[in-house]
Every structure is written in C-alpha cells, then in structure tokens.
C-alpha cells in the first residue's frame, strides 16, 4: 500500500541566464524569460540537499533516501549517501541513486511511496551552445517525504506504459544529449500518454482532474498532451526551464503550493514511456506547506553573463587564477569528521554552555574535558561579525568573500560566502547556511557548507 506525501520542499538556484543574453551572445533571437543556472559550486547533490532540507524542516528523519538525477556528481559511487550525511541522519538507513533518465524521478517517487522515505529529485541541464536544451533547460531540485501519518496528498492510482524508441540519448561522459527528429517523438509519445492517463483516471474514478501536470524532455509532446488533458484549473510550469529529473517534482511542488483540499492532481511523466499518477490533496495541506513556495524561489535571481555560464559548465576553458590549485581531499579524515564536515555539527559544553565550531573535546571556556553534547548548526541563523574580500584566492568566480559568522545561540566560524557580491555583505548581514562544493581536485568533490545572505 502506498504511503501519502507528508511534506515537500523545492530548491531553485539563484542565478538566471536571460534569453536576451543568449540571443545577444549568439546572434540569435532573444525574447523574454530566463533559465535557472546552478552556481559553479553547486551540483545535483548539493541542490538535492537544499530541497531535502526544505522538505524536512519539521524535523522528520526518513529511514530511506531515493535520489534521482540525470547528472550525477559521481559515477561508481552512491551520491545519495552525501545527501544522507548532510541531513545528519542515523546510519541505520538506506540511500540509493536512480540515474540516467528523467524517468528515474518516477522510480524515486514510487519507491519512497511504497516503503516510506524521502524522494529527492535534482538535475542540471546542459545543452550545446545555441541548442534548444541550453535555452529551454533549467537547474532545480525537489523532495517529497512519504510515510504513515496525516498526509497532505494521497496517491489514488498509478499507471505506466513502456516502449523502446530512440528519442533522446547521451553517452557516458558527454555533456549534451542527442535528439531524434521532433515529429517522431510526438508520434511515439502521444499513444503512450493516452493509454497511461486513461487507465490511471479510470482506476482513480476521476473523470476530469482539477490540475494536470505534464513533464517530458520532449517539449512538443508535452505541450500537445497538456492540450488534450487540460484539467479544470490551468497549471503553469515554473518559469525556469525544463529541469529534467527534477521537473516533475518541481511542478508538483508548485501545484501543491496552490492546491486546496479535495482537489485532484494528474501527474504525467513522459520519458521513455509514460507514467501517470493521480493524487488527492488532503486537508493537512493547509498547515504543511513549506516556508518558501516555488513561486518565491523563482522570483528575482541574479543575472549571469553567457561567458560565465559556459565557464561554469566546462564548455569554455579559461585561464585559471595564477595561484596554487587546492589538493585532493583525503578520504580517511573526511570519514572521521563526517558529522562535522557534512552535517555541520559542533559541540556544546554541558558544564558552561560554550558552543565549539568545529567540535572539541576540551572546552575553551571552562576547560571541562569530554563534557560535550552535539550542537547541530546547519539550520541555525547567523550574522556577519566581520568579513574580507579576497581578490587573489583561487576561485572560479572571484572575488572570494570570507565571512566570520556568529550563530544564534552560540558558536563562531569563518565560512565562504555564496551567491553574494561584496556590495551585499556588511557587518550584521543575516546569513543562512547552504551545502556547497568548495572545489573539485583529482576527481574528488570537497563538499562543505557556505553562508549566504538570508
């Protein structure tokens, strides 16, 4: 029996690549709109952590994580384990990746619903310069917690249709996907969509759903299917571009942000077949929405130059800073300090209350030895005590801003600032922590935490 959705969260990176900027750089049509772009220090894992933290803001601790992406940060290594560690979860749990196709999102959702757990959907979309994938893609993440309890949405029915046909593909190691002629994809997808949707609605006993979400890497097939299954209430996709494995989750989160109890939602994912899911929104939705809606996450953003985007994506190799590159992070010390490095857990002296960041055995205030308790700080707000702007440090996006953070409730530490310019940082600026990639060296990603303006 499928579990219901207990909570959800989404994440949209701050940077935006405007279509007008694309047009100006490539000498092609511009137009309005923009795509969301992950920063140089973000990947599918870090964005997945951000969405998962939003979904677990109520303090829930899932026993399983199902992570779906088409752009894993690692191959031959489970990426979901880093998400598990960053969430400070008990080691008695399960974490697994579903990678390669956007259809993995459905696999993650169904596995989490069947056994209870957290489905994390996260993706970076990269296309060849000037391609439709580059213009219409977007980077984002979403997470959904399933389990027993009072659900905010219940799964009424599921149906699937599968067929083998060559519409989109990408060999391992390639940045961009290949696509077949557009008309062929429409002809292949539409019968599958009609079949899966018809069976799902019949099983749920729903003639016309209130809201319909159609997500597919094939834009024309998705648009045609949306016209044939409009729903009673018009649904608009978040204006950040198609976000691959994250797209169904981001659009479902946006629908739940607006939905009212009793409404039905038809979620259609057309990728290498079609998967249709019918959900009913429950009364608990009114008190379980996340602090930040998808619309709020999409609003604003920092405009990005096209050359910077190409550099971050590895499509433009530029002269690096003339500084020594950082060394490869070592596995043993990272393992020994897992709670600190990945979950940002300090220690609090039980004798005097002093908070130590990083954790210590001996209190710097009262000198008590081994009188410590855990002090999780990743969700603690902070403020800038002082800061420095380093224009000489090795960084893909100089200048580097280092901030000394005073955490609410105690603790002080120096962190790199993320998603901020020097003009946005001053003494007293409110900050929040974000899980990022400090650098990559020798094929190893050095994950840690940064501070961004709240």
TrEMBL record:
GO terms for MF: acyltransferase activity
Domain ChsH2 rubredoxin-like zinc ribbon: 344-368
SUPFAM superfamilies named among the record's database cross-references: Nucleic acid-binding proteins (SSF50249), Thiolase-like (SSF53901)
InterPro entries, per the entry: ChsH2_C (IPR002878), ChsH2_Znr (IPR022002), NA-bd_OB-fold (IPR012340), Thioester_dehydratase-like (IPR052513), Thiolase-like (IPR016039)
Domain ChsH2 C-terminal OB-fold stretches: 379-436
The protein's name in its UniProt record: 3-hydroxy-3-methylglutaryl CoA synthase/uncharacterized OB-fold protein
Classification lineage: Bacteria, Bacillati, Actinomycetota, Thermoleophilia, Solirubrobacterales
């Amino acid at each position: 029996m499928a579990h219901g959705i207990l909570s959800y969260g989404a994440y949209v990176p701050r940077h935006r690549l405007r279509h007008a900027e694309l047009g100006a750089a490539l000498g092609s049509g511009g137009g309005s709109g923009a795509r969301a772009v992950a920063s140089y220090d973000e990947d599918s894992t870090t964005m997945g952590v951000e969405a998962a933290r939003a979904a677990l803001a109520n303090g829930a601790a899932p026993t399983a994580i199902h992570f779906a992406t088409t752009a894993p940060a690692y191959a031959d290594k489970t990426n979901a384990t880093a998400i598990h560690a960053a969430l400070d979860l008990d080691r008695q749990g399960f974490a697994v990746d579903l990678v390669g196709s956007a259809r993995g999102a459905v696999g993650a959702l169904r596995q989490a619903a069947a056994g209870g757990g957290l489905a994390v959907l996260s993706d970076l979309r990269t296309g060849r310069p000037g391609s439709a994938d580059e213009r219409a893609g977007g980077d984002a993440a979403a997470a959904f917690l399933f389990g027993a309890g009072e659900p905010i949405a219940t799964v009424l029915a599921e149906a699937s249709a599968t067929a083998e046909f060559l519409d989109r593909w990408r060999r391992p190691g390639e940045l961009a996907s290949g696509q077949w002629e557009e008309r062929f994809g429409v002809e292949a997808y539409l019968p599958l969509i009609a079949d899966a949707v018809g069976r799902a609605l019949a099983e749920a006993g729903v003639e016309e759903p209130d809201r319909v979400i159609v997500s597919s890497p094939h834009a024309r097939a998705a648009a045609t299917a949306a016209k044939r299954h409009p729903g009673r209430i018009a649904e608009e996709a978040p204006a950040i571009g198609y976000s691959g494995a994250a797209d169904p989750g981001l659009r479902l989160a946006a629908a739940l942000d607006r939905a009212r109890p009793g409404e039905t939602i038809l979620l259609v994912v057309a990728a290498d077949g079609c998967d249709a899911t019918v959900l009913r929104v429950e009364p608990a939705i009114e008190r379980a929405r996340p602090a930040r809606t998808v619309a709020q996450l999409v609003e604003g953003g920092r405009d990005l130059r096209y050359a910077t985007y190409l550099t971050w994506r590895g499509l433009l190799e530029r002269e690096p800073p003339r500084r020594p590159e950082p060394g490869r992070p070592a596995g043993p010390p990272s393992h020994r300090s897992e709670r600190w490095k990945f979950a940002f857990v300090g220690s609090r002296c039980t004798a005097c209350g002093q908070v130590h960041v990083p954790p210590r055995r001996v209190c710097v205030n009262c000198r008590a030895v081994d009188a410590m308790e855990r002090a999780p700080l990743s969700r603690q707000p902070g403020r800038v005590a002082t800061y420095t702007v380093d224009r000489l440090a090795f960084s893909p996006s100089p200048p580097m801003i280092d901030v000394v953070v005073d955490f609410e409730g105690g603790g002080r530490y120096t962190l790199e600032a993320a998603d901020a310019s020097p003009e946005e940082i001053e003494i007293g600026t409110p900050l929040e922590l974000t899980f990022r990639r400090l650098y990559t060296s020798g094929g190893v990603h050095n994950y840690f935490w940064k501070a961004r303006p709240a």
